[in-house]
Amino acid sequence: KHINMISENYKNSKFINEGIEIINDLYKLNTNYLFEFNFNIINKLFEIFKINVDIKLLSQLNVDGDKSELLIKILKKINSNLYLSGDGAKNFIDIDLFKNNNIEIIFNDFKHPIYEQIHGNFVKDLSILDIILNCGITETEKLIKNA
């Protein structure tokens, strides 16, 4: 149903074939768990866009805690003294706790790239599939890496 709905909504996109091929690959994973489905999507997109990162699951790190304390324990476990956070978390992170643990916080002031969409005026914060279906893989990779 999802693939058909996406196909119908983007049928006039010049990148429909490129995008639907990716979407079909993503839906090949047979799972009843949303986590596995989402994790597969993340890994596939990293592969497509040549993003090389070492992904660790919280369950693999054997740490516990709440909020900022948990983040600090995670960072210490992976031997990092730098935390990249979205700008919106400024009101929720205990900045002093990070400073006391010698961990630098960088707040990312994300500027959404604007690209041509097939359905009228630009709408931001849609799925990465919207960018792929409107711009294609090559242009999407440029937008991601320059954002």
Descriptive keywords:
single chain; 147 residues; mainly alpha; two-stranded parallel sheet; 7 helices; 2 strands; 50% helix; globular
Question: Per DSSP, what share of the residues sits in E-state strands of 2 or more residues?
Answer: 5-15%
Radius of gyration: 19 Å
Helix content: 40-55%
> What structural class should be given to the helix and strand makeup?
mainly alpha
- Ranges with pLDDT <50 over ≥5 residues? none
Distance between the termini: 32 Å
Shape: globular
For the largest sheet, list the strands in their spatial order.
Answer: 1-2
Order of helices and strands: HHHHHEHEH
Strands, total number: 2
Summed up, the helix count is: 7
User: pLDDT average, as an integer?
Assistant: 93
The main β sheet shows up as: 2 strands, parallel
